[in-house]
Amino acid sequence: MNQDLLAHIRADQLDESIFNASGHSVTIGPVTLEFRVNGEPASATAELYIARQLIGGCTLNPAHPSGKFGGAVDKLKSEVDLTLDVPGKKLDYRLTVCAPIIGGTSKSGTLGL
Questions:
Q1: What is the end-to-end Cα distance of the chain in Å, rounded?
Q2: Alpha-carbon distance 28 to 95, whole Å?
Q3: By the 8 A CB rule, do 42 and 84 touch?
Q4: Cis geometry, peptide bond prior to residue 41 (ω within 30 degrees of 0)
Q5: Residues 35-70: tens digit of each pLDDT
Q6: Of 6, 38, 65, 74, which is least packed with CB atoms within 10 Å of its CB?
């Protein structure tokens, strides 16, 4: 006999807050910056990958509105700068990548919360 172990949770009940979060990514060659931003409460989580290896990450919120992290895999280096603008409801980012011989490049942008 199958027993519903989660009978206290209605299957047809979703909270509208599930639509407050969205995911984004920015890629430069083998470097990917993944974001998850949320408008209520204002927050953002970011993770940096080089060649599919997790290098680092951070979570931003009103108490900690900025972050900077980076690292390297082999000779490929990358760094991320993030600023959460709570009143403006946006996240500013800058992703910088450097490789031997080729040099460096950056991508910057703004995501709405």
A1: 46
A2: 9
A3: yes
A4: yes
A5: 999 988 899 999 999 999 999 999 999 999 999 999
A6: 6
What domains are there in the chain, each with its CATH number? Answer: 19-112 (2.40.128)
Distances (CA, A) of 93 to 5, 11, 30, 41, 102: 43, 38, 18, 19, 23
Strand order, beta sheet including 103-112 = 66-73, 76-85, 90-99, 103-112
